[in-house]
Amino acid sequence: MEQYEPDRPSPAPSQARPSPARRAALTRRSLLRASAGGVLAAGGVGALSACGIPPAGNAGGAVAADDHSAKEKTVSFSNWTEYMDVDEGETRHPTLEEFTRQTGVRVKYSEDINDNNEFFAKIKPQLAAGQDTGRDLICVTDWLAARMIRLGWAQKLDPANLPTAYANLSAQFRSPDWDPGRAYSYPWTGISTVIAYNRKALDGVEVRSVSDLLDNPKLKGRVGMLTEMRDTMGMTLLDMGKDPGDFTDDDYDAATARLQKAVDKGQIRRFTGNDYTADLTSGDFAACLAWAGDVVQLKADSPEIDFVVPDSGYLTSTDNLLVPAGARHKTNAERLIDHYYQPAMAARLAAYINYVCPVDGVKEALAEIDPDAAENPLILPDRAMAEKSRAFRSLSDKEETAYEAKFAKLTGA
Amino acid sequence: MSSATLTGTPPPPPPATPAAARRTTPRRRRGRLTPYLLLLPGLLWLLVFFALPVIYQASTSVQTGSLEAGYEVTWRFATYTEALADYWPHFLRSVVYAGTATVLCLLLGYPLAYLIAFRAGRWRNLIMILVIAPFFTSFLIRTLAWKTILADGGVVVETLNTLHVLDVTAGLGLTDGERLLATPLAVVCGLTYNFLPFMILPLYTSLERIDPRLHEAAADLYARPATVFRRVTLPLSMPGVVAGTLLTFIPAGGDYVNADLLGSTDTRMIGNVIQVQFLRVLDYPTAAALSFILMAVILVVVSVHIRRSGTEDLV
After folding, report:
1. Which pTM was predicted?
2. Domain A191-316+397-410 is classified in which CATH homologous superfamily?
3. Looking at the domain assignment, is residue B188 inside a domain?
4. If contacts are CB pairs under 8 Å, which of residues 154-213 in chain A contact chain B?
5. pLDDT at A41 over 60
6. Of these four, A73, A275, B209, B247, which has the most CB atoms within 10 Å of its CB?
7. Looking at this predicted complex, what is its ipTM?
């Protein structure tokens, strides 16, 4: 069946004697050639050198953005998954609703942080271009908070809006070396790195220190370490009698060498992120470095999981609330920070998420909700526990790259 | 109407007036432009999502600097040689793992595709659905499921240990001790499992196109079944074999999820290195250079493969 197609290229005759129009027509090969040439030309010298990435950050420090808090009664808060209390239907966040009730400010809450590095990669282009990220408050781990402050990508907080937070912040968290006096950040939670073990998988082997993990031949291939450089290296440094808050390049190299030896003899099964919980529960890991908040939850689910705090001490890091540069609702964000420093709110949060609570005076409020949690040193550290806690010192841009590169080699990549 | 100007029929008398000439030219031009217009969406897509990222990464790979000081194009090609010197074992491992997984996929996939194409009868659709069904769940979930299935204390590992299979594989250096997870074997199996459908589907399409009467004709000419397969079926299915191996090998070579979840420190592939360099170490030039080397390695392997198998249908 022939159809009338006025624009259809002609059949046979013109093929035999190509007309000019025909010669110009498209064939697959000519197109491939042409586009390859085009890409090469476009990707030539000019285009390549035109790229380049401008220096990240603002040398002058934090940028103050226009604050629209008074007019727009809203605040947008980006947090990690499962880092906020929920009601029984698991759809609403009671402490956030309480904030809206008290202040009239609506909270746009998103759980869009899964990994510090990925989140940083996500917001970096906007921050580097001096644009609003659409987020007024973000929660990031201390090293990333330090980097953002260093780059001038965090706004300086106004103490006048943070009276409760200033009064109730625990002494342990008051002055990290990367943000003296908490000018830019307030901790959301403290994260303790301890050793967790699966009693069934250990089968009588005793684990008390990082040395046991690295050296005991009975644990060969059943030990887990963390992909977070600071946690794994910090715990190893502590085990070697060094202070992760004050160490030299040589100390770092010695700790790397110690771990490398364990890797080489197959002692360490895997370096993991959050997924160590699955390996620990299944017994593939007999023992591993672990974050205390997870251990509290794992323990509640499976009785064979427990933890030990090494005598040499343990590492505490923090997840911190920051107002990123360009945010439109800084005052509202500050009021939200202040809200969570009321002991009643902090207790409700701690009872749900089980991480270290950075707020003083929470014990009674927490005891009313969950008496066990109030006595748990992993949530409210007692004095003995607080004394063993160490923080990893802040690193310069150069150190960070060098240390991460050495650590990456250790993990096999 | 104006088809007369396009076909080979004798041209009409030359247009007498300029007006008549004007009437024919635009149509002719539109006719010539149509293929380009049709290509436009695809070309734009390629430009935005392929050409620009490639140029950007090419530029990144010859830059030096740091996050704080900024990056500048300094044409430092030493990044490439350094990256290759540091990470050649990872490249080698990626090629070996992806190659092994591709061969395994072919060995598993060919009989299955053959079965679906020629022998499945009314079960054909059901089997096809079963092949595609794993795609309904996420890649990550499926890989994590293997961690549960192959766990140290699990049934699979216990059975293999009772049969002393793992002693043999450990002797060959494929596994380590009495476990299956966190070994090279687990990573290769994970790759094979995850990319198997990409092998089966093209194999099936090219097998299904083969006219069964060719088999009958071969049999009529006294060819034994094995000969029919060797001389008729296999050569005619080569486009499917090539497409399947490409679709399996290329993504498997760049994969990092399987090595991350099912592997250990000594099974890391080049994808893991690139991920760590980009996201953790923040050494963007090295990461970009590694990506380009990976692209080159895959291009070389693939073009040798295509030359060898002599299939022009794909290029």
Report:
1. 0.82
2. Periplasmic binding protein-like II (3.40.190.10)
3. yes
4. 201
5. no
6. B247
7. 0.81
